[in-house]
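Sorry to interrupt, but I need a hand with the structure work. I would like you to pick a protein and set down its sequence and fold. Please put the record directly below this note.
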Amino acid sequence: MKRRVRVSPTEQQLVTGFQVASLLLGYPDGELLRRLPLLRRGAGTLPEVAARPLLRFIDHLEESDLERVTVEHVETFDLERHCCPYLTYYSHGDTRRRGMAILAFVHAYRSAGWEVGGDELADHLAVVLEFCARGDLRTGLRLLTRHRAAIELLRAGLEERRSPYVDVLDGVRALLPEPAPADLEAALELARTGPPAEEVGLEPSAPPDYMGGARR
């Protein structure tokens, strides 16, 4: 049996794929549903291993009404601790150290000429993917690689919940290099121990300087 050769995506495919995935991971609204034909065309330009799961999730959205997908999003990402889309949560929990970890994302965005703003923290996976697509791809890839264990844990949580969002994570993972053994070991250890905790951590609403959704 021939071994399947992994096809490395082009830079344009990375930009397109990360933008599609970023929008699909965001809070769904009527605008997202209207954009689905455009997102379908974008996903169709990607390598098959990335296109297939993204197109499957787009099919799911097209077959659902807005109320269903909004409830699904909230129940998945807001109520499930194991499906947290904030990458620093897995290694820092809601501790004071997490604030500094989030600031590292903010500084990376600003160094690329992006001002921070919007409704999500800077370490939200959708924000990082948008930065990859519309900001600085190389810097964004470094952020994703640095937090690969968190991506693997988020994907595992979605699979355990049998969430359709696992297809979006599979699309993202197909565009990234294979995880290093150290990343997989870190993910297994975090899955075993859970994120750290402390009695005094971040405030429920982070200061404005921590906010994400970078824009030029």
